[in-house]
């Protein structure tokens, strides 16, 4: 049974976290896709390239004929099976191509020979992407921004995860937002970040939150930048400053930079993990040499090497706490104090995690 059902109810896609079948070629998917989407392409990258040449030289009809030649017989059966299997596991799944044109229509027709209906996105990827970007630009109309500040290691991310009306930029960009913030798995594309951010904003706003809490960040987090309009709006937000003891900050940073990082590297690189981790840490230290100054950089390096040797000899990570204490005191703290002094944001409150949580409970929530 053939159908051509389309939907442009993009808001419901976001709120329902609707699974999506992206039938674009893998190269297109990698440049940017949507949360809850899976790439089950109609044509491969190479096929797309050859069809494009055919289209340029001989027009649409010849290009379509070549596409049908590529996707026929067992190849066609295999691709249809992949779409049907996903639809079986995700009954409310929809599909899309770039503009909601030929590719998604062909897939829709082929699938409809086996099941009653699958809906495709009207306007495809381009229309949905435009909707999400507009929602980011318009989101400042719907909430009051609160900005969570605090020294490195104070546990801002830990606190954010306890609060429903928060948006964790660092989680979305897969980066800790510092010189040592790089993670093994790498960052998403700028487009993927923006799409995920739009989902978060739409979902939070729909819940009726009058206030949204964000960690205090620069314009860039690693290689990802916060959309301009939103960044400017957040720069006007009032601050809550999280205060944590120096000892606790050492412990939190130790868990993040050393303990958990080494575990992650071990999962990824197995027996070679230590070499890769050391190399990345020394590269990160080199990045801050100029700001730190040659003498303090030398001390920091020596403390790190001392900790490495102690780990190799005793199997203990304890010495890294000396390295972290020096890094916090000599690098992060002076930089934070300078930034706080320059900061024009109004400070509403300074206090511990429990003090800030209590304050947030007093704000009007839905």
Task: State the assembly state of the protein chains.
Answer: single chain
Structural class: alpha/beta
N-to-C order of helices and strands: EHEHEHHHEHEHEHEHHEEEHEHHHHHEH
Number of strands: 12
User: What name is given to the CATH topology of the largest domain?
Assistant: Rossmann fold
Give the overall shape, derived from the CA principal axes: globular
Keywords: Selenium
GO molecular function, one term: tRNA 2-selenouridine synthase activity
Protein name: tRNA 2-selenouridine synthase
Domain Rhodanese: 14-137
Structural description of this entry:
The protein has 366 residues and is α/β, with parallel strands linked by helices. The protein has two domains: 6-133, Oxidized Rhodanese, domain 1 (3-Layer(aba) Sandwich); 142-366, 3-Layer(aba) Sandwich (Rossmann fold), CATH 3.40.50. It contains 17 helices and twelve strands. The chain has helices at residues 10-16, 26-31, 45-58, 60-70, 73-89, 102-111, 124-138, 156-160, 169-173, 190-206, 228-234, 246-269, 273-287, 289-292, 294-314, 320-342, 353-362; strands at 6-7, 20-22, 37-39, 94-96, 120-121, 144-150, 166-167, 211-215, 220-221, 224-225, 238-242, 347-351. Strands 7-8-6-11-12 form a five-stranded parallel β-sheet. Strand 9 (220-221) and strand 10 (224-225) form a beta hairpin. Helix 3 (45-58) runs antiparallel to helix 4 (60-70), helix 7 (124-138) crosses helix 10 and helix 15 (294-314) packs antiparallel against helix 16 (320-342). The radius of gyration is 25 Å and the shape is globular. The protein starts with 5 loop residues before the first strand and ends with a helix. The mean pLDDT is 93.
């Amino acid at each position: 049974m053939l159908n051509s059902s389309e939907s442009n109810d993009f808001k419901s896609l976001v709120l329902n976290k609707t699974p999506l079948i992206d039938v674009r070629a893998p190269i297109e998917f990698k440049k940017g896709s949507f949360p809850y989407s899976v790439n089950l392409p109609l044509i491969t990258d190479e096929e797309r390239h050859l069809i494009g040449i055919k289209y340029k030289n001989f027009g649409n009809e010849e290009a379509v004929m070549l596409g049908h030649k590529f996707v026929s017989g067992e190849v066609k059966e295999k691709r249809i099976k992949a779409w049907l299997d996903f639809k079986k596991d995700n009954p409310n799944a929809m599909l899309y191509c770039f503009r909601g044109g030929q590719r998604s229509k062909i897939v829709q027709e082929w699938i409809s020979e086996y099941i009653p209906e699958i809906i495709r996105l009207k306007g495809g990827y381009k229309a949905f992407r435009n909707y999400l970007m507009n929602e980011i630009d318009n989101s400042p109309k719907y909430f009051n921004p609160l900005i969570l500040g605090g020294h490195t290691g104070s546990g801002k991310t830990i606190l954010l995860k306890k609060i429903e009306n928060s948006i964790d930029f660092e989680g979305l960009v897969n980066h800790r937002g510092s010189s040592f913030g790089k993670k093994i798995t790498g960052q998403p594309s700028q487009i993927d970040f923006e799409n995920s951010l739009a989902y978060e904003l739409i979902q939070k706003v729909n819940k009726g939150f009058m206030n949204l809490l964000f960690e205090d960040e620069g314009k860039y987090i690693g290689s990802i930048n916060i959309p301009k309009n939103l960044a400017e709006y957040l720069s006007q937000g009032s601050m809550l400053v999280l205060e944590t003891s120096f000892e606790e900050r050492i412990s939190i940073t130790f868990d993040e930079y050393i303990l958990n990082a080494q575990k992650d590297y071990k999962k990824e690189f197995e027996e070679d993990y230590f070499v890769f981790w050391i190399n990345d840490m020394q590269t990160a230290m080199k990045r801050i040499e100029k700001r730190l100054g040659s003498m303090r950089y030398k001390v920091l390096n020596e403390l790190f090497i001392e900790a490495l040797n102690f780990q190799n000899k005793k199997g203990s990570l304890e010495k890294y706490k000396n390295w972290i204490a020096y890094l916090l005191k000599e690098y992060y703290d002076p930089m934070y104090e300078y930034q706080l002094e320059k900061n024009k944001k109004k400070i509403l409150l300074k206090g511990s995690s429990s003090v800030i949580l209590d304050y947030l409970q007093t704000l009007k929530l839905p």
